[in-house]
Amino acid sequence: MQDLAEGVARFQRGVFPAKAELFAHLATTHRPGTLFIGCSDARVVPELLTQSEPGELFVIRTAGNLVPAYTPGADGVAASVEYAVGVLGVRDIVVCGHSACGAMTALAEGHDLAALPAVADWLRHADAAPAHAGTADLAALVRGNVRAQLANLATHPSVARALAEQRLTLHGWVYDIPTGSIEELDAARALT
């Protein structure tokens, strides 16, 4: 916690004053252009990867960058997607997977998740990814999972409507942690 407190102090001393005009504008305006759906992994920082300023990205982070297919009812991911598309009017949605993903590794290697029932249940949202039990090719599973989550996104009514009206574009990315490279996947392929 000491590191976090020192970081806040540095922010208040240096970063905030240098961007005071931006923060004053953001106090009354919230119009991000992109919804970025990434993994909760601490090594994957959307604003750092994209070099975005505050206010440019609306971010959802979930284990395995998973987006459940739409079902009626209370769902924090669905509510965030709906708000981003229906209220904020984002024009782009990026689903970003990454190398060395713990969630995808658990699936690829068939880890016993009996002691983690919530994690096991959550990872079922990756079931549309390529068959994963015993898969040796983690990179292929990560790509397949990004495509599966793009397809899940398209089941959300706000997304389907915006796609039909050509107000929204979906993007699939895979971030490689050791090289810093981003591979762009064919999002249209995921929706067919």
Written overview of the protein:
The chain has 192 residues and is of the alpha/beta class. Helix content is 42%, strand content 16%. It contains 9 helices and 5 strands; from the N terminus they run H-H-E-H-E-H-E-H-H-H-H-E-E-H. A 5-stranded mixed beta sheet has the order 2-1-3-4-5. Strand 4 and strand 5 form a beta hairpin. Helix 4 (76-86) packs parallel to helix 8 (157-164). The chain is globular, with a radius of gyration of 18 Å. It starts with a helix and ends with a helix. The mean pLDDT is 92.
Q: Percent range for helical residues?
A: 40-55%
Number of strands: 5
Poorly predicted tracts of residues? none
Please summarize the sheet with the most strands: 5 strands, mixed
Number of helices: 9
Distance between the termini: 47 Å
How much β-strand is present in the residues? Answer: 15-25%
**Average pLDDT level:** 92
Radius of gyration: 18 Å
Order of helices and strands: HHEHEHEHHHHEEH
The global form is globular
Q: Strands of the biggest beta sheet: in what spatial order? A: 2-1-3-4-5
Structural class estimated from helices and strands: alpha/beta
Topology of this structure?
Layout: H1 2-18, H2 20-26, E1 34-39, H3 46-50, E2 57-62, H4 76-86, E3 92-98, H5 102-108, H6 117-122, H7 138-153, H8 157-164, E4 169-175, E5 182-185, H9 187-190
Parallel strand pairs: 1-2, 1-3, 3-4
Antiparallel strand pairs: 4-5
Structure described in brief:
This protein has 192 residues and is an alpha/beta fold. Helices cover 42% and strands 16% of the residues.
